[in-house]
């Protein structure tokens, strides 16, 4: 295996370079790419665990069993043990393949168990050699293979502890530095958290790209991420991630904080129940509850992330026909803002124009609706801020624009032009979080966020 490269990209043009202290393992460099992208390159050395050595041990063991077959009557017990250990070695080979499948899998291997198995195997070979009173070179070959495997296991464990885990931690530190940098740049821009004492969005900041999703696969482009928009009092907001690919189950991951999200240390996972429409993933987490679109019957659904209690409600006029421009099945879109929980959709009655519905969280029903003047099929995505709907549309592959707003308080609509950068051309999930006044975007498998600046009240 050739050395492999891990790449982190952050759009933070105000940062020309970042110190890389503490990166003792691997070769790490940082540079600024086109459009002000901060690039972090991590080159890791060849660490392939030699599965072929394990297979060779299996073959040597089989040859040894063949040689002692003539004495099988007196060695039935040893034969049984050898069969068991052959099965263990096959299991070891499978575990080695898991190790080779990705660097983040190293820490899942039980190295001590491997060492115990190898010591037991060495003891069995010694007993077998003494019983046969044999000096066959195959015994020496098998001893050599066992010792080599033991050394490799020790080296791999040492590599895991001293390198990969350090790099994962350093990635988290780097993420935190960038987050603090962004926070420092925008300090004092926004009004008090939770306040609507402003006149709407003035601008959207530069995109901050946290990382690729927890599946480490850009193919999981139908998904979303963010944090609970209504955390329990006294507790930090938990972060979440959910995604879908054509070959996977729809799994939803929860993280206790941002650093655990970055390090992919989830504390809970859920498989979404009952007719989940995979690509209709404009879901959010609000008050420890996941809200999402249900496929059959077409309805809004919710899942309590602690009790796993599930419920759904059909919105009689909501249509499963009208979607956003980036996906065919984003018919219902959930949002949370300073005023509570919302869901948007379109109806045949509105002729495909967006409808805003205020959701009663206790009764889980619609308590009020507003009809807008914007066609949903022309919208890239939409979100709510202080009771105002903001709709976006693509300008080009690198630029999105907030072009429309509807105020549910005044029932006034406006056409705007607030451009902001995209990390990649298409995105699936876009929502505002009133807890930190940021916009969260799931952009072709990547976690992206934006800070928002408001017009003063």
Automatic annotation (TrEMBL):
- Does the record's keyword annotation contain Signal? yes
Main subcellular location of this protein, as a coarse class: secreted
Alphabetically ordered keywords of this record: Secreted, Signal
Q: Give an example GO biological process.
A: signal transduction
Annotated organism of origin: Salmo trutta (Brown trout)
Where is this protein found? Secreted
InterPro entries in UniProt: Olfac-like_dom (IPR003112), Olfactomedin-like_domain (IPR050605)
Name of the protein in question: Olfactomedin-4-like
Provide a GO CC annotation, any one.
extracellular space
Q: Where is the Olfactomedin-like domain?
A: 195-456
Family annotation (PROSITE patterns)? OLF (PS51132)
Pfam families attached to this UniProt entry: OLF
Q: Where does the signal peptide begin and end?
A: 1-16
């Amino acid at each position: 295996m050739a050395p492999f490269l891990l790449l982190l990209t952050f759009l933070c043009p105000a940062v020309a370079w970042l110190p890389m202290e503490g990166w003792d393992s691997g070769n790490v460099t940082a540079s600024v790419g086109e459009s002000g992208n901060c690039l972090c390159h991590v080159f890791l050395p060849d660490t392939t665990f030699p599965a072929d050595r394990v297979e060779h041990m299996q073959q040597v063991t089989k040859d040894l069993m063949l040689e002692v077959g003539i004495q099988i009557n007196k060695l039935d017990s040893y034969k049984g043990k050898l069969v068991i250990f052959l099965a263990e070695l096959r299991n070891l080979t499978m575990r080695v393949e898991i190790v080779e499948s990705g660097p983040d899998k190293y820490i899942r291997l039980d190295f001590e168990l491997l060492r115990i198995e190898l010591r037991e195997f060495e003891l069995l070979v010694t007993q077998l050699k003494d019983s046969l009173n044999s000096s066959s070179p195959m015994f020496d070959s098998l001893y050599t293979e066992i010792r080599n495997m033991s050394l490799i296991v020790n080296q791999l464990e040492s590599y895991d502890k001293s390198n990969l885990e350090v790099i994962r931690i350093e990635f988290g530190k780097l993420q935190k530095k960038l987050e603090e940098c962004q926070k420092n740049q925008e300090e004092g821009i926004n009004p008090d958290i939770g306040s609507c004492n402003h006149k709407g969005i003035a601008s959207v900041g530069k995109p901050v790209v946290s990382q690729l999703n927890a599946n480490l696969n850009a193919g999981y482009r139908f998904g979303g991420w963010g944090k609970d928009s209504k955390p329990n009092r006294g507790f930090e907001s938990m972060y979440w991630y959910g995604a879908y690919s054509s070959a996977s189950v729809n799994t939803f991951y929860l993280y206790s904080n941002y650093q655990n999200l970055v390090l992919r240390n989830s504390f809970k996972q859920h498989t979404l129940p009952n007719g989940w429409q995979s690509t209709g993933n404009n879901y959010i987490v609000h008050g420890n509850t996941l809200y999402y679109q249900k496929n059959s019957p077409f309805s809004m659904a919710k899942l309590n992330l602690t009790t796993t209690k599930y419920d759904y409600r059909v919105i009689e006029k909501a249509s499963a026909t009208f979607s956003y421009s980036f996906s065919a099945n984003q018919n219902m879109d959930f949002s949370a803002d300073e005023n509570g929980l919302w869901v948007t959709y379109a109806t045949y009655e509105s002729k495909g124009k967006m409808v805003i519905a205020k959701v009663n969280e206790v009764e889980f029903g619609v308590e009020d609706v507003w009809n807008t003047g914007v066609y949903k099929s022309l919208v890239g995505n939409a979100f709510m801020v202080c009771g105002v709907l903001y709709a976006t549309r693509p300008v080009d592959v690198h630029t999105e624009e907030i072009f429309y707003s509807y105020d549910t308080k005044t029932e006034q609509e406006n056409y705007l032009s607030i451009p902001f950068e995209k990390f990649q051309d298409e995105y699936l999930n876009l929502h505002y979080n009133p807890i930190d006044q940021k916009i969260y975007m799931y952009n072709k498998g990547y976690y992206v966020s934006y800070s928002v600046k408001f017009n003063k009240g």
